[in-house]
Amino acid sequence: MKDIVYLDLKTTDSTKLFIRPERYINVKQELIEFLKGKRHLRTKVFAKTVMFSHELKANNQIEGYSDDVEIIKKVIARTKDIQDKDKRQRILNLYHGYNYILKTKEINQETLKKLYSILSKDLLEERDLKRMGEYYRTAPVYILKHGRLDIEPDEGVIASDIDKYMENYFNFLNKDIDGDITDEYIKSQILHYYFVYIHPYFDVNGRTSRTLSMWYLINKKSYPYIIFNRGISFKDSEYTKVIEDVRKFHDLSYFIDYMLTTVKIELEKEHVMQLEANLASDKLNGIDYQTLLYFLTMKGTKTVLDFANMYNRFNDKKRVKEIYDTMIVPLLDKQVLDIVRTTKKNMFDDNSNLVLDLRNKEEISKEKVKRLVL
Questions:
Q1: Whole-prediction pTM value?
Q2: Measured on CA atoms in the order 334, 341, 296, 24, is the torsion positive or negative?
Q3: pLDDT digits (tens, 9 = 90+) for 30-77
Q4: In this structure, are residues 191 and 213 in contact, taking their beta carbons and an 8 Å threshold?
Q5: Strands 154-155 and 16-19, how do they pair?
Q6: What is the dihedral of CA 186, 188, 191, 192, to 10 degrees?
Q7: Which of 242, 267, 292 corresponds to the end of one domain?
Q8: Distance between CA atoms of 240 and 204, rounded to whole angstroms?
């Protein structure tokens, strides 16, 4: 294995991005072994299921928007419940964008233009609309870090050079590689980073880059890896930091290692959720899966109050009692969660806070679940 592999992707200082495969070889091999025999994860049905629930939520959540999966379902169903116009628009844009990439095979300048018009519909400032060229922006853009501009903010490439960089992007995208679906996932994340690096638009660059990566994965039938947005959404500060590191050092190994590790943890969660669903006393619904996902994402001692804090971090806030009644109690009733003990704190009223754990923890294979802290 070569120590350093230079990619045909140029940076603004005329050097090339490079990778060091030895940095992420272990987690890559873990993923290859993990997916053996996991037929349900390797189907388009699985990809579509996660795309229109947690992945749609996560893609917006990375940008700071906390829309509950039940709200997303209502918006997609065109119910009148959700009055917030911007909320409805950003959800519908991703919904229509995902449908577009599912039915459109070729990725080129024209189809990207169409995808961006779908994802950015009614979300762009009038000032930015007036400064858009036929395909890309015609003026500088500054890239936010952690939701703010630093004293020395990063910029996308010079507007007059965007065509050249995007041609480089499409050439890399369309060049076949010799590898399996995990290698295709690695390539999709190189594309993910490079699009963010170019930053060809004034806004909605992040959502477009991640949707483009999903588009590539769908075309290559790399269905298990569609789930990558969800992992980013749970640790987005790391995501921002690793992008900054690559921008600084041009070594994409940092980003690939992060994205491989992140997706491995999410796939391990899927493995545990499937096991728990099979052993539950009744069928799990969408809210049950969301509850279980958040429960598996928590670290350390897992109490109802901890769970409520976790939920409220990523969704419109609810009272602890409502969260307990609608999310925790059903999984206790279905024998997915167990009460381990109480604590000295009250979770609401005079009800003691509960320490919870998975009922079927002993059934989980340690060979399959290596990265997830249970």
A1: 0.94
A2: negative
A3: 999 999 989 999 999 999 999 998 899 999 999 989 888 888 988 998
A4: yes
A5: unpaired
A6: -100
A7: 267
A8: 16
